[in-house]
Amino acid sequence: MIDHIGIAASDFAASRRLYEAALAPLGIGLMMEVTPEQTGGYHGLGLGKNGKPFFWLGNGGPRGAGMHIAFVAESRAQVDAFYQAAIAAGGHDNGSPGIRAHYHPNYYAAFVLDPDGINVEAVCHRPE
Question: What is the pTM for the complete model shown?
Answer without folding.
Answer: 0.87
